[in-house]
């Protein structure tokens, strides 16, 4: 992965030539040759804040609609007469295209479409996928819903890459950490609003059409597509502002993306494979559980659907403010392996509480939210500590690829386990996945410890940006692909 601070920032003023051309651009653009208003000046903080607002909302629709199935789990199962295994296919189909696309999203942005056109295209995929998904529910055709989720997945992951690329182009240095933190908080806001509002939307639409059913479900999902349309508008505005800034500041974005060489995989160190195992084993116990959480809380704790959706969303609610703060803490203290170990242990404790006790689930889910946020901040930067810079793009791409592969397979397995064995066995299965992650963390700690003081890559202070989420957990620069 290319060093963010070495990339040419759109707003950079590293040398006098750039400053002069920028001043000339401002003079040319201002009325009568005078300076333009601050909100219109691409060099001014106020204008950059406006850009940041659109940048944060760029992925709002994708985050909002990703967990539509989780927010309406009981409604989807009842209205479409599905078993849980079929239901979880909606998440698997999202992940399947991203087993491959994680290697090519940055390449398409950098070398084929460009950041502006690419962002608009990926936003269109998100809108189209959600509309097809909703249409499938309207006409009660599950295969059409699966096709919609597949198309939605093509756009969703690549749109996250585009969002990160815009952030790198417009902000640099210490600002970049803050920008990624704000984007992460907006992502969590979208997920939280979805979890807590879609049930209410469904009930209102069911009242309007006269009864619950696939028509009310499809109409609810179609209404959710409005958020994707809003994000598409943000993509169009961002493209306009980016092009305008390029014209005023006389900057041109060179194709400086990092080259991915898939043959680098054979040279990955043992450290990195342990990180991959931690990544897969941890996240497959988080997001499939959230996808199935609503009915779990209704059946085990006798919650109402609204209460179940609220407690199921607490992971996202906590992650919104906690992730930037925890990222700052990890930046200052280092010791990434220790923080990962703590987060894995607390996640295991949360799943054990949910499986074997009847304690108020708000306790376990709050613990899960904190540990999930901490792991995201500590795990992903470790890749940069164990591989050379020229292999970072390949390493992050491969990490995201196997993450999506694991999510697709475990989503299907979780549905089958729940249909045949019930929630207790499913929770034991999730605990087993976390135990594998814990074993890998302990091995990583000792492998790193016995390396001695020659290099302490996993115990240093990191200054990397905080990653965003599972289907945008990768902060990926623009890249090109080489197979050999």
Automatic annotation (TrEMBL):
Instruction: Assign the protein's first listed, main location to one coarse class.
Output: membrane
The record's listing under InterPro entries reads:
MFS, MFS_dom, MFS_trans_sf, MFSD1
**Localization in the cell:** Lysosome membrane
Q: Which reaction does it catalyse?
A: L-lysyl-L-alpha-amino acid(out) = L-lysyl-L-alpha-amino acid(in); L-arginyl-glycine(out) = L-arginyl-glycine(in); L-histidyl-L-alpha-amino acid(out) = L-histidyl-L-alpha-amino acid(in); L-lysyl-L-alanine(out) = L-lysyl-L-alanine(in)
- Presence of the UniProt keyword Transmembrane in the record: yes
Q: Which domain of life is it from?
A: Eukaryota
Q: Which residues cross the membrane?
A: 45-64, 91-109, 121-144, 221-241, 270-290, 310-330, 337-356, 362-386, 398-418, 424-447
Question: Is Transmembrane one of the keywords UniProt gives this record?
Answer: yes
Region annotated Disordered sits at: 1-29
Query: Subunit structure, briefly?
Result: Homodimer. Interacts with lysosomal protein GLMP (via lumenal domain); the interaction starts while both proteins are still in the endoplasmic reticulum and is required for stabilization of MFSD1 in lysosomes but has no direct effect on its targeting to lysosomes or transporter activity.
- Cross-referenced SUPFAM superfamilies, in alphabetical order? MFS general substrate transporter
For this UniProt record, the keywords arranged alphabetically read as follows: Lysosome, Membrane, Transmembrane, Transmembrane helix, Transport
List the protein's name. Answer: Lysosomal dipeptide transporter MFSD1
Q: Which PANTHER family match?
A: MAJOR FACILITATOR SUPERFAMILY DOMAIN-CONTAINING PROTEIN 1 (PTHR23512:SF3)
GO MF term list? transmembrane transporter activity
Role played: Lysosomal dipeptide uniporter that selectively exports lysine, arginine or histidine-containing dipeptides with a net positive charge from the lysosome lumen into the cytosol. Could play a role in a specific type of protein O-glycosylation indirectly regulating macrophages migration and tissue invasion. Also essential for liver homeostasis.
Query: Which is a Gene Ontology cellular component entry for this protein?
Result: lysosomal membrane
Give a Pfam family name.
Answer: MFS_1
**Topology versus the membrane, per the UniProt entry?**
Multi-pass membrane protein
* Sequence ranges assigned to domain Major facilitator superfamily (MFS) profile in this UniProt record: 45-451
Q: Which family does it belong to?
A: Belongs to the major facilitator superfamily.
